[in-house]
Amino acid sequence: MPTAAPSSLSITLQIVSIVFYTFIAFICIGLPIAVIPSYVHEQLGFSAVVAGITIGSQYLATLLSRPMAGRMSDNVGTKRAIVLGLSGILVSGVLTFFSTLVESMPAFSLGILIIGRLLLGVAQGLIGVGTISWCMGAVGTEHTARSISWNGIASYGAIAIGAPLGVVMVAEYGYTSLGIALSVLAALGLVLIRNKPSVPVVRGERLPFWAVFGRIAPFGASLCLASIGYGTLTTFITLYYLNRGWEGAAYCLTVFGVCFILSRLVFISAISRFGGFTAAIACMVIETLGLTLLWLAPTTGVALIGAGLTGFGLSLVYPALGVEAIKQVPNSSRGAGLSAYAVFFDLALAIAGPLMGAVALNLGYGWIFFCAALLSVSALGLTLLLKRRAY
């Protein structure tokens, strides 16, 4: 007798059991994200620019390590890539803890802290690619959208929990508690993953990373253009509110995050039903509307609606375009494909700050959302071209 196909619930549970390691990793990324700048600026006495570089060093490390993360996932297996990533977080936690012990030597403390941030960035790349590739190997490439979506829910949800938790921890127990928490969480992940069965390495032709990158690039470019809106909102919403004389910027981020996660939970099946291109196009229209409302918002209420629509629209862009992008590479180079695709999201976050900072400096904070909306429209146009070319 033929075996029954696994139910939707059992597939989701399989995916969740794997992206749990993404959740642990991003809790560790979220814990220090809101408190490291103040530590560098106020405790160590460095400028706000140095504080920004310290935070940004992690994202630079993630960006530069993407090719290595993809190769590891393809060649040595997804579980081993995740184990290496968790080990990196553990060492990062130890270094973060040690940096707070030598606070009396600011330059030395900062150097150790930055090394820890670099390790955390590399670990983020390894675990992000490893978990999605592991999910696809476990449940099949036909569930790529669901795998990417649940991985995103785990990461964004973890940061949403970790950032305020880090603030509370520092207020109650001091900065030394950060390093301890990172080390304990990473050690917990390493213990739990020990007996989890891995999926076999996919045999076959391994395309060079830059060959994969070339195939993925058109889809990644569209993702990058659309995702600058995310980087703009998360980076500048507080300053935008201050510029308008408003209070409650944190609520804007909360509404964005809630709508983002709800959209992924409720509408993820739309990608398999209507296709990645159609889902991405619809979402980009909604995102553009949300960014336009933020640009024109006369009140905080309208700004909240704009943030909600932006989160709702951005939610499915990454998995929807990802489904189409991964079709361009063989399964044996799946990890490299996921890495190449993720580079473009990293790039969006890297350029959103300086690009929109220049816009705010010359035109005012409101115009950053107008420019982000224009870039979203550009992403929409490129996606329409890719859809036409595909069919």
TrEMBL record:
An example Gene Ontology molecular-function term: transmembrane transporter activity
Domain Major facilitator superfamily (MFS) profile: 14-391
Highest taxon of the lineage: Bacteria
Gene Ontology CC, one term: plasma membrane
Main localisation: membrane
Its membrane topology: Multi-pass membrane protein
One Pfam family here: MFS_1
Compartments it resides in: Cell inner membrane; Cell membrane
Positions of transmembrane segments: 12-37, 43-61, 81-102, 108-136, 148-167, 173-195, 216-242, 248-267, 274-296, 302-326, 338-361, 367-386
Assigned keywords, A-Z: Cell inner membrane, Cell membrane, Membrane, Transmembrane, Transmembrane helix, Transport
Similarity section: Belongs to the major facilitator superfamily. YhhS family.
PANTHER family linked to this entry: MAJOR FACILITATOR SUPERFAMILY MFS_1 (PTHR23517:SF13), RESISTANCE PROTEIN MDTM, PUTATIVE-RELATED-RELATED (PTHR23517)
Name used for this protein in its record: Uncharacterized MFS-type transporter ACR52_16630
